[in-house]
Design brief:
The chain is built from 14 helices and five strands. By secondary structure, the protein is mainly alpha-helical. Bound molecules: adenosine-5'-diphosphate and tryptophan (TRP).
Length: about 325
Amino acid sequence: MQRILTWLQVTSDQFHIGNYFGAVKPLMDMWDKHPDAEVFLFVANMHSLTTVQDGSLRQNTLNTLKLYLACGVDTERVFIYNQADVPGHAQLAWVFNCYTHMGFMERMHAYKDKVGKQKANEIPVGLFTYPMLMAADILLYDATHVPTGKDQKQHVEYARDVAGKFNHVFGEMFVLPEPVIGEEIGVIPGTDGRKMSKSKNNYIWLLDTDQELTKKIKKIPTAAIAIHEPKDPDECNVYKIFKLFLTSKEDVVLRKRYTDGWLSFGEVKAEMIERVIDFIWPIRDNFHTISDEHVIDILTKNAPKANEIASKKIQDVYQKIGFSL
Ligand code: ADP
Ligand code: TRP
């Protein structure tokens, strides 16, 4: 039986269309592709704590989960639980902390990237040690497949290595997880052409009102090219965002309109506004019908099963390493 394990970060209480196309949609496509697999989705609040430390994790968790549900993530299909509800994550991470060497960890990409951007002595220790927590997230549940971006592949490989080492020393203990690198989604650009990001004020929120998103789309800068001239769609920010909402046939037609000339950016923007509204309003409506209690109910209901699986693993580990007497 395949068990796919995936996570969601709760670093924000808002969600933009870059998050939708970069994170939610690939998730839903993935479980469509593997109809027989079990899918575990956990709220990675212990990871998010490395950056969100003002208490807003609670609201972020409620909003993010509501958005996932509003986008169509089906709780019958996916087992959703809260990482911090399961002490096994911290327990197993500690064991891995003790068995892993500093020199090895310092070679991890994610950490090296951070050191590049921030002074090393200002980085939370939790960010340095998160590969161990991540290995615990995966190995506690006997996950067979872990979908991940290229940036996280090295961490899944670390989980696989550490699992192999423990199995070698202590006998069968962990299932070796397989990293699954999805299709490259690429970076979804924001309204200013840079990567869409909540820190850049170039986003379209999934909860924007029709008026808000209309204003944002109208403001997307376009090239000053005479109307009759052919235009390159790949140089146009309106196109780059609009195409996310188009079928491949519609995409071909739009590209041709660009290259034929006589394309009015105003017209394309008006069509795009209509399409984005059609896409967003059902999500926004669904979102507003989902209560905090509903989300809390799901997590509360699922915590015992997550704990049951995790604590069996912890018992086995504790026995073998000599904690349990
Ligand atoms: P932000 O950059 O707005 O802070 P996060 O880092 O919280 O976004 O990202 C959450 C998820 O959404 C990640 O899986 C990330 O890969 C995806 N994501 C965020 N922005 C984009 C984007 N512009 N294009 C594609 N995927 C994105
Ligand atoms: N560290 C991952 C990231 O920053 C998120 C993550 C935490 C994760 N635990 C995991 C991913 C377990 C896969 C499996 O994106």
